[in-house]
Amino acid sequence: MDGVGNVIEGAELPELDQEFARKKNMALLPIMDTLLYNIQRQGKISFYMTAHGEEATVVGTAAALLPDDEVLGQYRELGVLLWRGWGIDAAMAQCFGNEQDKASKGRQMPVHWGSPQHHFHTISSPLATQIPQAAGVAYALRRDPARRGKNCAAVYFGEGAASEGDFHAGMLFASTISSPTLFIARNNGFAISTPSSEQYFGDGIAARGAGYGIDTIRVDGNDVLAVLSATREARRKCVESGRGVLVEAMTYRVGHHSTSDDSFAYRARQEVEDRKRIDNPIARYRLFLKNRGWWSDSDEDELKESLKKDVMRAFKTAEGLKRHELSDIFSDVYGGEEPLNLKEQREELTQLLRKYGTVWEPWKAELKKFKDNGESLLGRSK
Amino acid sequence: MTAPSIASTARAAKRLSPSTLSRLSVARRCNSTGAEPPPAGGHLPSIATSKILRTTREAALRTPGIKWLDEDGNSPLQNTIGGRETRKMNLYQAVRDAMGIALAKDDTAIVFGEDVAFGGVFRCTMGLAEEFGRERVFNTPLSEQGIAGFGIGVASMGQTAIAEIQFSDYIFPAFDQLVNEAAKFRYRSGGQFNVGRLTVRTPSMSVGHGGLYHSQSPEGFFMGASGLKIVVPRSPVQAKGLLLASIRDPNPVIFMEPKILYRSAVEQVPIDDFELPLGRAEVLVPGADLTLLTWGTPLYHCETALSLLAEPPASLAPLVPEALRGARIELIDLRTVLPWDVESVIESVQRTGRLVIVHEASRTAGVGAEIAAEVQSRAFLKLLAPVRRVTAWDTPVGLQFEKFIIPDAIHVLDAVMETLAF
């Protein structure tokens, strides 16, 4: 697909019906991103990371996977969960860390999604740790008679994370101990401020695949149809051979790294504006749909309007909800029998709360934010 | 250990030693923070008015233990302070200033790490690449083990390596290089090789909204790695002097900078080259009734707690026994966590008979455990109360629960009162 949504001569279009094509509309992700970014700016949530510019890579790969392929993300893959129907409300709840946040019970920063029902493993902040884990997940799939030859483990990571030792270990394990692992490198050009030209001297991430004996494809990550085709084929090989396959999607991080970053300290605003204008993955796909007569301006307006309403509604709901119970400080550290130190520390905090909870302002204000107002601890009398 | 009980006022008064009681009316600490407790939030409001900080030129130049390293290495050390200048700096600017001096005076010195070239995510390397060139100040690929290993290699060649690990939460991929390599380099080579010129700077501790992976204080994990030094500065003057000492120390040093202090801690900082001693604790507030020991961010919570103890706001007054309000608490900044200043701590505890240790890392096998063990074996007969540890719980740092996990002034106040009243 070229810059204005025409299929390039000689290119093979992926199998695509109208309904599927429209569903793949990437409108929701930027609407979510924009709202969540803005409410972080207003101090309503603590942190956020957008996927601006990478929508085609995330949504295109998501569409190529089976809904029950196991996904291990890095953090910029909300689009996969939205594709799988996790829902706007669940994402809002996670960002607010409210009582409906099942992903981490309010324990992790925003964007640390996860849902076993959606076969999406919980995000962890340390980079690249998910990559060797994906090889293990894939091996477990291979050993499961019900899923062998059917599912793969898809692991997402940035070109920066691919510098970590864990990347090399993951690739090596997936090839040596053959495990159907689909490595999806989102090469967005930046690791926070560090441009990819300072991240590697070789030919990107794709060049490494051969060294590990892993079949590799590089794709225009801003062409959602190309991403879809490449990932479908990579996935097919991965599942059929039971081995690792690497997809490198070349894209561009239009947004700042996160809400803690101001990227104009290290790159020109004009560069970003040019990218948004010339190589916009959403515009390219929209033009493609229009060219086919599958999409119109009024469809676009209608969809955006209704999505914005949905997102606003979810935001309002999430904002009004309280946090999980205070006693969840101590739950889930261990499964099974709780060790004595945790029991005692829960009691220690209980005593402190009873003594100071109503008179120490920082606590008094904070306790009200929990759905139990702290009663899950305070009520636990001894 | 059993959970602490809450001491009643009567019991508190009864259990204080007569000598303590006699001092209570005299001792009235002049403390920094206002009477009302700080609001909930991710910053440390107490810092703005902290008496711990040296906000005048005179105070800065008289920093205890300061060692001037003037331009001319042949002339005798200049101990005079007349004519020296200071400049107002926050902690990240002081760190930057120290690295600027190290780079200017030592041609072998290099500064590197993730995102260092544009100034670093906490602005600690701002302008260094422009001033000293990209050969000496540069970005590395995103690999902590690579950064540590590379730094070890540079240092093993006798050159000065100043590495940055972007967050101390992410230091663990470098754990092997630091613990198995840097720490053991000298010993395993029979003293032939060493990596003393390696310094690893890393932002550390909590900010109030960092969650599991931006709140940790991993110093305790390095306690068993003899050969390494672990240093934690509390303020801009300390950061500059301790960092320059760390860079020049003959041992590899991990320098953990409390990130909440980067912007909020502001002092007048001497612009000359100076060092502050490693391995030495500093008494910030002398006292005789209880030793309160900590390092980094919690120092300010401790200062607030002492203020709450001496002059509790109306809301807390009923919970703070009159008899305890005049207690004289000795506040000590440990500064170097490994090897820690056993002598100073023991000397203090032998005078006060009571010790409360505060740290942000969780309790089990935290640094406080090691200190408590040494104190009970060296000062057993002088102890009037069990050594008390105020720490995070043995849980990860859950984002929405942080205010109840990371110890704040009220935790410290309660522990101090209980220990006084034991």
From TrEMBL, chain A:
Residues 24-325 form the Dehydrogenase E1 component domain. Keywords: Oxidoreductase, Thiamine pyrophosphate. Pfam families: E1_dh (PF00676). Its cofactor is thiamine diphosphate. Its EC number is 1.2.4.4. It catalyses: N(6)-[(R)-lipoyl]-L-lysyl-[protein] + 3-methyl-2-oxobutanoate + H(+) = N(6)-[(R)-S(8)-2-methylpropanoyldihydrolipoyl]-L-lysyl-[protein] + CO2. PANTHER family: 2-OXOISOVALERATE DEHYDROGENASE SUBUNIT ALPHA, MITOCHONDRIAL. Belongs to the BCKDHA family. This is 2-oxoisovalerate dehydrogenase subunit alpha. It comes from Lactarius akahatsu.
TrEMBL record, chain B:
It is an enzyme of class 1 (oxidoreductase). GO terms for biological process: branched-chain amino acid catabolic process; generation of precursor metabolites and energy; response to nutrient. It comes from the Eukaryota. SMART domains: Transket_pyr. Residues 89-264 form the Transketolase-like pyrimidine-binding domain. Its EC number is 1.2.4.4. Its cofactor is thiamine diphosphate. GO terms for molecular function: branched-chain 2-oxo acid dehydrogenase activity. CDD domains: TPP_PYR_E1-PDHc-beta_like (cd07036). Keywords: Oxidoreductase. InterPro entries: THDP-binding, Transketo_C/PFOR_II, Transketolase-like_Pyr-bd, Transketolase_C. It catalyses: N(6)-[(R)-lipoyl]-L-lysyl-[protein] + 3-methyl-2-oxobutanoate + H(+) = N(6)-[(R)-S(8)-2-methylpropanoyldihydrolipoyl]-L-lysyl-[protein] + CO2. Pfam families: Transket_pyr, Transketolase_C. PANTHER family: 2-OXOISOVALERATE DEHYDROGENASE SUBUNIT BETA, MITOCHONDRIAL, 2-OXOISOVALERATE DEHYDROGENASE SUBUNIT BETA-RELATED. This is 3-methyl-2-oxobutanoate dehydrogenase (2-methylpropanoyl-transferring). It comes from Lactarius akahatsu.
